[in-house]
Amino acid sequence: MKKLASYTSKSYLLLICAVTVLIIVSSCHKEISTTNQTGSTATGNFSQVFEDFWTNMNNNYVFWSIDTTNWDNMHTLYAPKFASLNLYDSADNIKAQGYFKAMVDGLSDSHYTLFPGGGYIQPAHDRKLQNPQFIENMFGTAPYSPSVDGHFYYTNTLDSLYLSEKVVGVDTTGSNKDMYAVSGMVSGSNILYLAFSKFALVSEYQGGSAKIKAVLDYFFNKLSSASVTGLIIDVRGNIGGDVSDLNFLVGSLISSPLQVGYTRSKSGTGRLDYTPWAPAIVTPRAGATAFTKPIVVLADGESVSMAELTTMSLKRLSNTTVVGDTTWGANGPLTDNSVFNAGSFNFGNVYNNIETGATTYYGNAYTSSTMFKYMDDKIYEGKGFPPDVELKQSITTVFLRNNYIDDPQLDKAISLLQ
Amino acid sequence: MKQKLQRNVAHGIVMFILAVVCNQQTHAQFSIGVSAGYANNYLVTNVSNLVSTEYKSLPGFSAAVPMMYSIEDWFAIKAEPGFMQKNYRMQRTGFYQGIYQDNTNGYIQLPVMGHFSFGGENLRGYIDAGGYAGYWLTAHVKGVMPNILDQPAYSSAVSNEQPNNVFDEYTPYSYNEKYQFNTTKDNRIELGILAGAGISYQVNDSYQLFAQASYYESLTDQQKKYETGQVPRYNQTYVFNLGVMFTLGSSGY
Prior knowledge:
The structure holds two protein chains of two kinds. Chain A is α/β, with parallel strands linked by helices. In chain A, 34% of the residues lie in helices and 18% in strands. In chain A, a hairpin with a 6-residue loop joins β10 (345-352) and β11 (359-366). In chain A, α2 (46-60) runs antiparallel to α3 and α8 (201-207) crosses α9 (210-223). In chain B, strands 1, 2, 3, 4, 5, 6, 7, 8, 9, 10, 11 and 12 form a twelve-stranded antiparallel sheet that branches. At the A-B interface, α1, α2, α3, α8 and α10 of A face α1, β7, β8 and β9 of B.
C-alpha cells in the first residue's frame, strides 16, 4: 500500500514535469505577425512606402518562379537607401524613382509598369530601347508618321497598295479612340486580310464604332466564302487588350475547343505559392466551322499581350505559319487583384480624405495576375514568341520612298499563301 | 535560446529515462500493437492580407504500430511509428465563395513519449507526453479556381446582369492532382511535441485494447526559410485512435 502511494506520487510528479516541459516547448513557435491587405497599409515616410511596395511585390507578383531578380537582395540593398529619404522632399522623390527603377529593371513580366510618385517605369519598354531597330521605328522619319510606340503599320496607307477590296474603320471617340481595323482581299488573289491595332473587338462589335463593326462583318462574311484560299491576320504593332476577343476571333476559325496552354496564379502569401496549372482553352463560336485553308499570322516585336496569345493560339492550328519577328513577351493575363489575390496593386497609402473617402497612394504597380505557359511547356514571358519565318524589318525598309510601300513580311505572307 | 532550451529539455528527458531504466527494471515488459483512427488538422498561419480567404481544418486518418516498453506499472516508454494525414482547406468567402483547395498531406512519423498510467488491474487510464519527428511523404490538392483563359463561347447577346459570384464572371476549373513538391519552398521534415490521454483494458495477459486522444503540435515551419518576411505555417493535429497491444515478454528481475 505504501509502495502504491509512492508510485502514485511519482507518477503525478513526473506527469507535472512532462506537462511543464510540453508547455515550455510549445512556446517555441515563431511568432506569426499580422499582415495587411493590398493598399491598406498606412505609410507616413519613405521607409514605410518601400516596405509596403516590397511586401506587395513579394506577395502579388506571379513570376517569381522564373524571375532572375533576387528580391531579398533588393530589400537588403534598398531598405537603408529609402530610410534616408524624406517623402516630402522633391529631390528625394527623384532619387526614389531611380531606386524603384533599379529594383524592377530585370523583372520578367513584360506587362509590368510601375507608377511611383507620379513617375512611369516600364522595364520591358526600357529593354526595347536597347534595340536600335525599336528606336528607329519609334523615332525614324517616314512619309507616314509612325505612332509614338513604334506601331508603324498604319494599314490605312498600307492597304491602299496591297488590298484590292477593303473596308477600313477607325474609332474616333470613346475608350478605344484611334483604334483602327481593316479587312480586305489582297490584290490579285483570294487571300483575306485582317489587321487591327488593339483587342477591343467584342466591345467595338457590340456597341462601339459602326465602322469597325462593318470591318468585322466584312471579315466574317468573307471567312465563310468558298472563294477565299488563305487568310492573313496581321497583329504587328497590336498593343493587346480584352481576352474575350480570343473566343470572338480565334473562336470563329475553329469548330471544337482548342487548348493553347495553361495559366496559374498565386495560392497564398508566399513567393512560391502557386495554384495548379489550369488549361487555357479557346472556345469556338456557336455554329463556327473550322477554317482549314492556310493561315499566316504576321507578328512582330510590338505585338503585345493578346496579340501574342492570339498568335500562339493560331499557331496551334496545323495550317498556320507565323511570319515576322519575335513578339513583345507579355503573355500573362490580368484581372482584379482580389480574384487571385495576385497581380496589380496600390502601395503606400499616404492620405485618406475623410470627406470623399478617397485614398491617395504613393504608387501603383500594373502586373499580370497569372502566368501563361504554352502547350510546348515553355514560358515566353519576357522572351516573346518566335516566328516560324523570321523577317526583321524596320520603318526604313518598309517605307522605302514616298507613296511606295514595300512590306517584306507581308510579301512573304502572300507568297506562302499563293 | 530556442536551441539551448530544446537541448536542455532533451537532456533532461534522456537522464530521466536512464535513471528509471537503470534503477527500476523490475516491471520491464515489451508490447507491440496496431492502432488506427481519425485525425483533424489545422494549419496555423496568417492570411489576413488575402481578400476573403481563410483556412479550415480537414479530417484525415492515422495508423500506427505502437511499441511500448514498460518500466514500472505506472510508467513506460512508448513509440508510435506510423502514417498520419494532416489535411487542411483554403477557401474563399463572400463574392469568391466556391474557390477552395483541399490539401491532403501524408506524413510518416515517429512519436516517442513517456506513458504514465493509473487505475486498476484491467481498466487503466493513461497520459502520454513526448515529441515526434515526421517526414512529409505525400501531398495531393483538390479544388476549384477561376480559369481566366477558358471563357464562355462568344455570344452576341449583350448582358447587363449583375454577377452574384466570381463564377458568374469566370469559368470554374476543378482540379484533383498530386502536388509537386518544391525543393526551394517545402520543408518536408517536421518536428514537434505531442500530448495524449486514453484508457486501456487488459483483456488477458497477452493483449489489451485501448482508445486514446492525442494532440500533435509542429514546432517547425512547413516551409523552408526561403524569403524575407516569410509567414510561417504550422500543423496542429488532433488524433483519436483505437488499437490493440500484444505483450511479447517481460524481464522481471
